[in-house]
Every structure is written in structure tokens, then in C-alpha cells.
Amino acid sequence: MCKYIFKRLLSLVPILIGISFISFALIYFTGGDAVAVRYEAIGGMLSPELINQKREELGLNRPFIIQYLSWLSSIIKGDMGVSYVSGKPVFGYIIGKLPNTLLLSISSLITTILISLPLGILSAIKRNSIFDNIIKAMSFIGNSLPNFFVALVLSYVFALQMKLLPVISQGTSFKSLILPTLTLSLAMSAKYIRQIRALIISELSKPYVSGARARGIKENTIIFFNVLRLTSLTLITLMALSFGSLLGGSAIVESIFMWDGIGKLAIESIKLRDYPVILAYVLWMAFIYVFINLLADISYYFLDPRLRIEGGKYAN
Amino acid sequence: MRKQMKLISAAISTALLLGACAAPNKQANENTTNAETTAANSDSTSDVKTMVYGTTSYGVGMSDAGLNPHADYSGWSCVRYGVGETLFKLNENIELVPWLAESYKFLDDNTLEVIIKDGINFSSGRKLDAAAAKECFEDLIAVHDRAPADMKIKEIKADGRTLTFISTEPNPALINFLAEPYSAIIDMQVGVDETKNVSGTGPYKAISVSDTEIKLESRDDYWEGPVAKKNITVKSITDGDTLTMGLQSGELDATYGLPYASYPLFENDNYTINSSATSRAFFMQLNFENELLKDKNIRSAIAMAVDKEGFVNVLLGGHGKVANGPFPMKDGETPNYSFSPEKSKELLNAAGWSDSDGDGYVDKDGKNFELNFLTYPGRSELPILAQSVQSNLKDIGIKLNINSTENYLEVVKDSSAWDILASAMVTNPTGNKAYFFETTSLTESSKNRGHYSNSELDELAKTLSTTFDSEKRDETAQKMSDILVDDYGFIFVSHLQMSLVSKNNIKGLVPMPSDYYEFSKDLVIE
């Protein structure tokens, strides 16, 4: 097991190098001039001499490969550089936004599970009933609505009309967390309900379910202790991907609700060509995807006894 | 099963623990902000009222986070929010008037003497005198990126209230740069703290500063007179819709930067909209690398086809001012030319362009008249302008291909990729009109993207750079503006009208054309 985890973590190294190289190249060849973009964006004006001096200071006048290797060697030493825009160390900058994103991600995922699991199961059990059709229609609509639209509608209803919740986040208070969480969860739930429904229907048609029913085992017991357990492997994979995506921040939702997270930071950095922050963000995303999926793989080991009995897969 | 339950419990515990990392800051923010929101309406614990002000113009993305005037554009925040003040300020006509200065005179071309007013204290309690100002300017010159090149200061002398600037070369614009927000005078003995807070001479002092929020309180000892007791929270809000809903829901009391489409929501008795035309101009530069555009008749045909009134009154909902040149028109000033699609068509016909194949576009030698229009979406007015001009030019038979891209600075380097560039710029940021010409329209200007060149304009710029008399400077600038407009190398469409929208219990929140001053001592929360 430990060997497996070590191998997986080791595989992160070429992935991170590959991704960082591609990102660096994309930024370098298509990104534009970081200094000029920054001052143009705020309507400021610098003389060409000053622009050149600033480019020199930031090392932007050096050839691509030198810039990349210099950045890479700093990363290896644990230095992610300094933001061109804020002048703050990138590592601290990203870490500072992480708790907010983490909180929003966790609350969104938990809400998604709370909404989609019961509705997905009910929809599968009551297949083709009116209830199922309503759920299917709702999830279809939920899948079709873009996040920003849902965010605006929820703000209009709960903040403007009912005056229950704030539009502008007040730090990370519980009240402020509700609307961004709901916005993210509604779209994810719509997707999950359909997935859970399909998985449960597929499992319910398997012989072991018929066998259990023939032995007189209660339907609820079959659903919760057999079917759900077996579908959990697929669900965990899906959730791991969603969680990875959520940890990358949701730029639109964070911007609309002024939630000071990583997604908002990423969008602002891209706009201002803040290369060190963009690259750190890309590395973070790559790391988090690999890491979360590793955790998902490890969880299979505990959830699926077949893997332990077969023994070898992870043990080797 | 038990193992699985343990695993799930462990996972949830870890998640909650990680989530709780946010708790310490969270708690603090939560408490203060909730308190403020309540206080915005009425403060139950004291008589001090709080105004929550949402703005799109504060934050790291705008390079003005913090209040340190010696860093980036943070001087704008320092002056806008009434913390810092400059020796001179720009009045409602964008003319220089003394502020912290009592009087000034140029002793010779290289020496400016400024007498500082008596009886002014920093919020730290220290008295403002020439020595304190000298310390501040010396730090500015040492650390700021733009100030040394702008001010060209060789030496500063201080004696009592007399501050003397000696420049390296004749610099008539030095006095204008003393009104630039980076020249806000702060107490350098207190310095700049780690949150980028400073001690200035303005009617407010900051009690906390972050990259997204500033909390201010009114001063009791302000030199210009009593300031109504109040607290102000400035919040950075990047999304226009959030800003709109924040004001509607009552979470905000006043706003800067509302989207144009939102204004009608606040045109009622519950809100006050105070507006001012600024020198931020929306204008087009024509590309002189395009042979067609070297023809003055073609350029004038394009210029006269642009319906500036329609753009301002219909598309911007009246929240702008039609432009004639780089600077806002004075009362009674008439445009150099007027909107006339008929005349445009005549000019095109005279140049040999007509719609011979009836496809709606004029053509010559079998080729339609087609132009590439480049702009960027960063200023919401520009893509709207692009569509407006596209429609105007179609009316006279010119096909316009629009490219609105964030990456326009790369595209603009390729002269063959664009013919008209629309951009926005503050043309007169410090009352020094030479600035616009020097940056955009002289033969060697860094932002002369279309390679426009006019020897008379270049000569006048040289004259302006050595003229100290303000009337003569204005005259010369007007001549230069006329040359530029009459040459049709630049088409000035409109000037931004800045509006501050507030609840009707907020009085005295009035914008100024220079965009530097927002919170004055006269701001009152009723």
C-alpha cells in the first residue's frame, strides 16, 4: 500500500513538470506583455523606458527557456516567486485564499450529496413514476442553467426579495456561505441525480439483487447495504473529480458573491497576466487532481473487499 | 462496515478541520461586517453612522490596493478616500488650485517655490511643515516608478513653510504633478505600516486597510473645518451586477462603477445620482499604415459617419458626454465637424468609392471597402462603441470587422491586423494637457499606434513643454487639439460621465471630473 502511494506521488513529478512547461509556453507565446497589460488595464501610462526597466526587473526580457528553467529551479527550492501585481509571495497569496475555497468546496459537496443521493435513489426506485419524471425534468433544467444565471436568480430571490441572505459575502459567515454553496450544488446535484439514478437502476437489475429479494431481504436493506455500497465506488470517483474541480475555485460564483477564493484570484491573475500566480494555480490544480484521485483510489481498497481479497493490486 | 464508518467519520472530521482553518479570520470579518451592515442604517450603540461604499475601482487588480501613495496607483485610494491630500488639486474645470499649498511661484525655469498653509496636522498629530513635506517627496522620488521621470527633481529644500523644488531641467508641468495622487503628503515619521496604512492630512483616517476593504473614521481635528462624525467602509466589488444588487438590497449605501444598464433602477426618490463628465475619453485612432486611410477625405468620411450623439444618448443611456477633442468641451464650445452620413457618402464618391454591385457596400476596382476595428472588452463602453460604429459605417457602405480582445496589445503590434483602434484614456489626469499629445499623437509618442505624424503638432508640443504661463499653455493645447481633430487621424467620440449612486440619506458624495476626489469633509450621512 505504502509503495503504491509512494509510486503515485512520484508520478506527480513528471505530470507537474509537463503541465508547468505547457502552461509556461502557452502564457509566453500567447499571453502578451505582462507589464503593459497591467498598466493599460488601469488606464495608466508608463514610458517605454520604464516599461522596459520593469520587464528587465521581472526577467521578462530573457529567452523563454531561460525564464522557464529559472522559474522551475525556484519552484524546486520551494520558492513560487512573487506576484507581479500585488508584490506578495505567491505561495502565501494562494494559501491565504485556500481556506475560503476549501470551505466553499466542502459545503458544496456535502450539500450536493444531501440533495442528490436521496433524490437519485428515490428516482431509481420509483422509476418512470410522476416523481421520477419531475426529478428528471428538474435535473435536466439544472444541467442546462449556467452558474452565473443561477447565482443571479438566487440572489434576486433570497437577497433582494426576501432579504434573508446577503449578496455580498461578509467574510466567511454561515449566511454568506449559503448562496454560493447553493449555486454550485444545484448544478452538481442535477448531474449527480441522473448518475445515481442510472447506477442504482443498473445495480437493481443484477442477479444478486434478485437473489436477495428471493431470500426475503427487505428492499431498504438491499438498497442501502448492497446496492449503495457497490455504486459508491463510481460515486466516489465522480465526487473526487468534482471536489478537485471545486478546489480549483469557481471563478464566476466567487466573483458574483465576492467570495475571496482561489477561482477569483485565478481569473484576476489571468486578466492581468500575473504569470507567477497563474503558474502556481496550474500546479495547484494538477496536484489537487492527482492527490484527490489518489485518495479516491485508496478509499476503494477499504470499500471494496474484492480488492483486498485479490490482494495484490495495491499490495504490490 | 465499522471500518467504513470510521473511514467516513475520519474523512468528514478532516474536511471540517480543514474548513475550520478559515475560522479565525472569518470570525473577525464576520463580526465587523455584520456590525457595519447594521450600522449602515443606524448604529444602536452610538450616534456614529456608517456608510458602506462599494467600488469597482479599488483592489489589487486596479493596482491601487492600500493607501501608500508611493506605491503603484495607491495614491488614488489615498486621495479618493480622503486620507491624503496634495499641495494642489484639480477643480471642477480640471484647473489647478492650491490645496495644502497657500501660494507658489517659479523663481526661474528650474525652481519652484511653494508656501504650505499654516495650521495643518497629519492624523498622527504631527504638524505639516516644509520639512515633513520634503521627507515625503524624497521618499516618493526614491521609491515610486513614475514620479522621478515626471517630476525631474534634482533637489528639495525646506525652510519653515517654504518648500523649494529644483528640477534637473525646465519642467512647467511640475506643478501639475504636485496634484497627482502620488504626491499626497503623508507623515514619513509614521511611515507605511504592513497593511499599507498611512497618516495623511485628509478629513478621514484609516483604522484598517486590506486589499479588499478599507475602514475609515472621520477626524476631529481636520484643518479645513469640522467633519460630520461618521465611519466609512470601502469595499472592493469587481462584479457590476453584485454592486447593483448590493445597493438594491441595502448592503451598500453608495457605489462607484455601476453598469450603465443599472442606472434606471436607481432613478427614483430613494437614491441620488451625482454625475460629472471626466476627461476619460473614448476615441479611435486610425492606422496610417493603411494606404486608404492616408487619404484625408476617407478619414473625414469615416469621422462624419460616426453618430456620437446616438452612442452617448441611446447606447450609454445619456451617461456620457459627446467629445469634440481629447478634453471635455467647454460651455459654448461647438464641435469642429458634425454627424453627416450624406457628406460622408459624397466624400467616398469623390474618392471613387460607390456601390456598383448593389450589395450595400461601396467598392472600387472590384473590391469592397472593408476595415478592421480593434478594441478590448476591459472598458464596457468599447465593445458597444464598436457595434455602433459598425452600424454607422454600414450606412455609408463601409464594412467593419470587429475584433474585441483582451489581447489587443499583441494584435496592435501587427499594423496589417487593424485599421481603427478604439481605446479609452484619461486625457488630462493632472491638468497638464501636454500629457495626452506627448503620449498618443506626436510622431514619437509611445501610444501613437497608427503612426500619425503632423510636424505642426510636433512643433507646438515642443513649445508647450517650455511654456510656463498657464493661459498660453491652454491656448497652445487648444490649437493642438484642433489640429488633431481637423486632421481626422483621431476620432474622439465621448467622455465618460462618472456617476456616484447613493441612498438618498447620503449627501455630499459628489464626483469630480478628475476622478481623484470622492470623500470630502462635506460628506454627510443623514
Plain-language structure description:
The complex is a heterodimer of chains A (316) and B (526). With 316 residues, chain A is mainly alpha-helical. Chain A has helices at 2-30, 34-41, 48-58, 64-76, 90-125, 130-144, 147-161, 174-204, 207-214, 219-247, 251-256, 262-271, 275-303, 305-310, 312-315. Chain B has helices at residues 2-19, 23-41, 74-80, 130-143, 147-151, 174-177, 240-249, 296-305, 308-315, 341-350, 381-395, 408-411, 434-440, 455-465, 470-487; strands at residues 49-55, 88-90, 96-98, 101-108, 111-116, 153-159, 162-167, 204-209, 213-218, 230-236, 254-256, 271-286, 320-322, 363-364, 367-368, 370-375, 399-404, 420-426, 490-503, 506-507, 524-525. Mean pLDDT of chain B is 89; it is low at 7-45. Chain B has 2 domains: 49-270 and 504-525, D-Maltodextrin-Binding Protein, domain 2, CATH 3.40.190.10; 277-498, Dipeptide-binding Protein, Domain 3 (Dipeptide-binding Protein, domain 3). Chain B has 526 residues and is of the alpha+beta class. In chain B, the strands form 5 sheets. In chain B, strands 1, 8, 9, 10, 11, 12, 13, 16, 17, 18 and 19 form an 11-stranded mixed beta sheet that branches. Chain B has a 4-stranded antiparallel beta sheet with strand order 4-5-7-6, with helices on one face. The interface between A and B is large, with 54 and 58 residues.
Oligomeric nature of the chains: heterodimer
DSSP summary, beta strand count of chain B: 21
Provide the structure class of chain B.
alpha+beta
H-E string of chain A:
HHHHHHHHHHHHHHH
- Examine the secondary-structure arrangement and name the CATH architecture of the largest domain in chain B: 3-Layer(aba) Sandwich
**Radius of gyration from the alpha-carbon trace of chain A, in angstroms:** 24 Å
What structural category characterises the helix and strand content of chain A? mainly alpha
Low-confidence stretches of chain A: 312-316
CATH class of the largest domain in chain A: Mainly Alpha
User: What's the architecture of the largest domain in chain A in CATH terms?
Assistant: Orthogonal Bundle
Task: Specify which chain pair forms the largest interface.
Answer: A-B, 54 and 58 residues
Kindly give the count of domains of chain A.
2
Largest pleated sheet of chain B? 11 strands, mixed
Spans of chain B of 5+ residues with little confidence (pLDDT < 50)? 7-45
Q: Could you name the CATH topology of the largest domain in chain A?
A: MetI-like fold
Question: How many beta strands in the DSSP annotation of chain A?
Answer: 0
Characterize the overall form of chain A: globular
Q: For the record, give the distance between the C-alpha atoms at the N and C termini of chain B, rounded to a whole number.
A: 64 Å
Largest sheet of chain A: none
